[in-house]
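Ticket 4471: requesting a sanity check on a complex prediction with flavin-adenine dinucleotide. Repro inputs:
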Amino acid sequence: MAPSEYDVAIVGAGIIGSAIARELAVAGHSVVVLEAEEVAGETSCRAMGHVGAYDDSEAQLGFTFFGRRLWEELSPELPPEVDFVRRGALWVARDAEEMAEVERKRAVYRRARVDVDVVDGRRLATMEPNLAPGLAGALWVPGDIVLDAAEATRYLARRASELGVEIRTHTPVRSLRPDGVDLGNGQSVRAGHVVLATGWQAPTLLPSLPIRPRKGHIVLTEPLPGYVRHQVTEVSYVRGASPTQSESITFSFQPRSSGRYLLGATRQYVGSSTEVDPAVVERLLERARLFLPGIREVPIARTWAGLRPAGPDAVPILGPMPGRRELLVAVAHEGIGITTALATGRLVREMIDGRPPSIPLEPFRPERLAAPKS
Ligand SMILES: Cc1cc2nc3c(=O)[nH]c(=O)nc-3n(C[C@H](O)[C@H](O)[C@H](O)COP(=O)(O)OP(=O)(O)OC[C@H]3O[C@@H](n4cnc5c(N)ncnc54)[C@H](O)[C@@H]3O)c2cc1C
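Returned structure tokens:
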């Protein structure tokens, strides 16, 4: 067999493919990235950019916390346009029942050694005076970060390129081969490993992967500096994000350095259109009004929708496909792909180099799915 042109071919230059490329380049591998459109042309340019610890499961908490730590480590080299800010997050509760959830969350986070505190309604009102009066309190996560997901993706790809990675945009992959990939233009690329990082479109190349697009709408406001200072999310968000919920609308509000705010989060399994549904935006604004009564007075600059790559559970699918050691997948990051991009890159590098993993890999392996076939 002819020698491979590259150690690794990565399919997809969203935040996951770009982070893997940078990590493999740091380790000295020869890498090519094959992207059908542009770098950050799909879901990674439509996200909110809350880099947080999320606790749907122990595996998810460990993974997101690891991801947040790696962003923290990378922060000194990030350029200003990535807009990396340690804002801290407030998981807000409206009543005593939701405060019980805040307490549960505190116990889980503390067990995982994530620095958190519970704040009562009075302290919450001082921290965020524009929140609705009478809220019960919140979980305060001081280490959570906010960044610009699209710019972060572009930075990772640019850095990978500076380190020698070849990034080919407008280069769709048509099919996977045991020794590389076939391109849409009829050519092929040979590589020792192929890493599939094609987000919600992963089943196109590997139909056995149980991934569905999960639509999310975002509202971007005009600037109103100081209106909200922290990442604020309602505490029932994680329940809403669970893959078993067919539809959910939960409040999540994110300040950016520009003085603008991003409002989310909606979740729907309604196919692969990114067309904005005004009725869903209206419901999102209604939900937001429960937490920010003045939200209707903040002018809206733009709305859009993106597609989260949702798997059957709330942890991504990472690792070699059963029976095909050369084919690795890094998909199904749903609503935590920005947070866990660097962690994904690190784990993929460790797998390819045959090194011990930084965190246990078992919860992520494709083998955990019902009969995944390549
Ligand atoms: C509304 C919304 C809000 C979100 N908020 C957050 C948040 O606050 N925090 C967080 O951590 N996460 C958040 N996420 C989740 C995050 O955006 C995703 O998990 C992440 O962007 C997925 O990245 P990806 O690289 O897997 O996919 P993508 O960004 O979709 O990249 C996949 C790439 O593969 C390419 N591709 C596909 N098929 C082919 C092919 N055949 N050949 C070549 N290239 C191909 C595509 O063109 C695309 O560029 C949010 C998502 C949404 C939609």
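Notes from triage: The chain has a mean pLDDT of 95. Leaving this open until the requester confirms.
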